[in-house]
Structures are given as C-alpha cells and as structure tokens.
Write a structure and sequence with these properties.
The termini are far apart. The protein is mainly alpha-helical. It contains 10 helices and no strands. It is elongated.
Length: 206
C-alpha cells in the first residue's frame, strides 16, 4: 500500500510538471527504483495510474475545504480559499497536462462525475451566501454554478493559452464571476482578498 501511494505521488508530480504524454511508465518506475513489473502489478496501465492521481487530488482538496470551512466566518471566505488553492495548482501545472488528459476516457468520465457533485455542493454555498447577504438574490445560480467550469474548458482549448498561462486565465474568470454575483458586502471581502493576494504575488516575484 505504501509503495502504491509513493507511485501515485511521484506520477502526480511528473504528469503535472511535464504533461502526461511525455512521461512513460518506465520513467516512473526508474525514478522510484522499482521494477516495471511491480508498477504493472499495481496499475494496469497509465490511465489507471492517472485515475488514481486525479482521485488523490480530489481527496486532498475535499480535506482542505473541510478544514477551511470549519474556521471560516462566511461562505465567500471558503470559496476564495478554494480559488487560492486552485491558482497554486494551475501555476504548477504544465498546460500540456490539460491537453493530454482528453485522451483518457476513464479519467474524463471521472472528472465529469466529480464536477457534477461539485456543482451540487456549489449550489449550497450560493444559497448560504445569499442568506448571509454576501451574494445577490437577483441571480439565477443554476446558470452561475456551471459558468466557471464551462468558461475554463472553452478557454483552455482556445488560442488564448498561447499568450496566457492557465493560472492567469483561471484567476480572471473566477474574479469576474465572484464580483458579478456579490453584494456590496461581498465585494468588500473579494476586493480585500484580491488586494492581499496580489500583494503576496508581488512579494514572491520580488
């Protein structure tokens, strides 16, 4: 079991840094000093390994969100922390990863199923946000909840990826989305967060 976990962690790092296509099962086995036979005893093929990588990422994100929600004062704080974590992930992910993943049907199916569950959870956040006076009441959240995912899918397949990183694209889409549905109270939270976030980014660059 420990060996399997090490393989999944190593594969996650390799796939996100280099893209999926360029990383061979031989490379992963060699990097961990295990035999190719051992690797194929653990995973039928690269797609099975990639599927476990995606499952691990989702589990880690769910644990992170649970921790954040237990301390947050409002739902917007939770969503902004989720955004911050995703930006970090995007910054460390080669854009080829997103292109390559489309070639693995089992993984695409898992992502689609996970997304449906996430959208249901998002609806609960929007409802709570309205109750807390953070999100507007005059918005159709059945439409809003799918907008970010659809926009990201569209943009990641477009020519704009040649000019901007996935992280920059995601950042822009999410903040347009958050500001559009927020009340004055919510806007102050978003803008304060954005000010601190940009300040942190500048400090890293400096």
């Amino acid at each position: 079991m420990v060996v399997k976990e090490h393989v999944v962690l190593a594969a996650a790092k390799a796939f996100t840094q280099k893209g999926i296509k360029t990383v061979r099962m031989d490379d992963i086995a060699a990097g961990l000093s295990i035999s190719k036979r051992t690797l194929y005893e653990l995973f039928h093929d690269k797609e099975d390994l990639l599927l476990d990588v995606m499952k691990l990422h989702r589990e880690e994100m769910q644990e992170y969100m649970t921790q954040v929600a237990s301390k947050a004062e409002n739902v917007l704080e939770v969503l902004l922390k989720f955004f911050q974590r995703n930006v970090l992930d995007f910054q460390h992910t080669n854009r080829r990863f997103f292109e390559d993943i489309e070639k693995y049907p089992k993984v695409v199916r898992y992502i689609d199923e996970s997304r449906k569950e996430n959208l249901d959870s998002a609806m609960e956040f929007y409802k709570k946000g309205v109750e807390q006076g953070i999100f507007r009441r005059d918005v159709n959240y059945n439409i809003v909840r799918v907008m970010v995912c659809e926009q990201m899918d569209l943009l990641l397949r477009s020519e704009i990826c040649k000019s901007y990183s996935p992280g920059e694209i995601y950042e822009t889409v999410v903040f347009m989305h958050m500001r559009g549905i927020s009340t004055e109270k919510g806007l102050k939270i978003v803008d304060d967060f954005l000010l601190n976030f940009k300040g942190d980014e500048r400090n890293k660059c400096g």
